Amino acid sequence: MLRVIKPKNARSKRFLENREPKVNENPKQALFIRGSSTSEIIKDTLQAMYDLRKPNAVHFTRKNEVHPFDDETKLEFFLRKNDTAHFMLGNHSKKRPHNLTIGRAFDHQIMDMIELGIEYAVPSYVFDSVKMAVGARPLFLFQGEAFEYRDEYRKLKSLLVDFFHGTIADGVDLEGIQHLISVTAGPISEDSNAMVTDGGAFKSATSTAGTGLIFFRVFTIELKKSGTKTPRVETKEMGPALNLRIRRTKFADDKTMYEATRVPAENRNVNVKNVSRDVFGDKYGRIHLGDQKLDSIQTRKMKALKLTRSDKKRSQGTAEEADE
Prior knowledge:
12-stranded mixed sheet, Brix, 7 helices, alpha+beta, 14 strands, Rossmann fold, Ribosome production factor 2 homolog
């Protein structure tokens, strides 16, 4: 457990206040960690993912003895010390070769984790394409029925979207959309794959029964002239290109998930009855009035409703004529 730090000056006080919980949170930071034993495939993958996540990312280039599925203490210590909400851990062993673990935390406590095995990998530097700018937000494309009806696939989809979410923006310029991340769920089978090498790519023999391959691809988006106001969109593979397979998972319980996704009262959209807006943003309201008892309304003391002398004479004259 970290000791409680008391600020000694205004600068350190502002730094600690920036880490405190807020109604509108800061952009989420991600922590990239190398395990105690890594391969070149893992190193290249971590570096490529770090490049996609910059500038809201911290990269540990030295080896660390971290095994989150066995003991979460050390990883939670790193998350709290660096004030990060997401993490990606890479390690390599004979039992689990080219292993990649992606996860997220709530209040610096591990919430969700998914362990992925890399069975095919092509690093980013192999592709001859223009790289995206630092801090650019990606488009996501998820393909495959498994993302709809399998729990581990749905969690992976949520994790990836949350991992690369970036800062919250009211609008996005077309020039700011520079890359696309495509995640495709392959057919699910019980068979294992054989060891194959293909040029600069890598394929592994290890697989998990009951899960299919997940194809992770990154493309650069190029806007070409089309002769109209809408540009013509072309894509070119930017890398990395990964074939992944789910190995182990660990998800939060319902209570923790409820606390993590609870919206503060200040940010809740309060539904006001009988108030609506049209497509142009104009506001419309409906007012319901009760029964108006005009006989019991106090009008004597209202100057505007008082009868003048001429009104009184006129009313008396009409009353006398009616009597005659």
